[in-house]
Amino acid sequence: MRISFIGSGRVATHLAHVLSISHEIVQIYSQQIEHAQILAQKVQAQAVNQYQQIDQNIDLMIIAVSDQAIAKVIEQLSIYLKDTLIVHTSGSTSLELLTQYHPKSGVFYPLQTFSLERDIDWSNTPLFIEAIEVDDLRRLTDLANSLSNHVYLYSSEQRLSLHLAAVFACNFSNYCYDMAKQVVDAQQVDFGLLYPLILETANKATQSDPKRVQTGPAVRKDLNILDMHQQMLSGSGRDDLKQVYALLSQGIIQRHESE
């Protein structure tokens, strides 16, 4: 397939790189031409920063920009790409946002966290696709199956629930790791000592019901420990961490009240 991208950030970079192995990446568009050039050079594509420069002789256009920018992008693209399949990569944006401007639209959403410095295991990354037209859905299915062993046809509502769940499972949990590191850094303790605990906790969450394997002072309703921890945070001047600690502990207690 001949594929172009709108966007040159983390999602675009990882997708363009893996798709360039078996497909032709034609163009990379970014308002910042320097950003487009960096990615375009890696995948042997042309960098552009004007919609008028977009090559219309492509099979697929992938919008990989921030959620708030998608509507403006598809409105502009629909002027230049009349018969081209256009997809976005967002977990939280409805397909209808595209179809109101462009009937040949779809979704190609990888449920993964992307960092430029880390490679992605695409074969184990769930890919969620959606499209209105049968032929477009077939093409997206074939493309997704060429990357991943886990391809799903989910509605926009189902995909949004996954995106929300991912914020808890990924973004919030990573912030908890950040807070944990702040606590031990204050006492010059090696954060690496927590690695086995972090990995075991993640492994248990993938093998059992997270509620069933919950541990810690909150699920035990150990008020003495909970109070001691919060006093430690107050004494160190970290009222921000104390508030998070109290909120999460109360949530755990309420979740397990009937037990």
TrEMBL record:
- Spell out the Pfam families in the cross-references: DUF2520, F420_oxidored
The answer to whether the entry has keyword Signal is no
InterPro entries per the record? 6-PGluconate_DH-like_C_sf, DUF2520, NAD(P)-bd_dom_sf, P5C_Rdtase_cat_N, TM1727-like_C_sf
Q: What is this protein called?
A: F420-dependent NADP oxidoreductase
Q: Which UniProt keywords apply?
A: Oxidoreductase
Q: Which intervals hold domain DUF2520?
A: 126-250
Gene Ontology MF term list: oxidoreductase activity
Identify the residues that the record assigns to the Pyrroline-5-carboxylate reductase catalytic N-terminal domain, covering every copy.
Answer: 2-89
Lineage top rank: taxon:
Bacteria
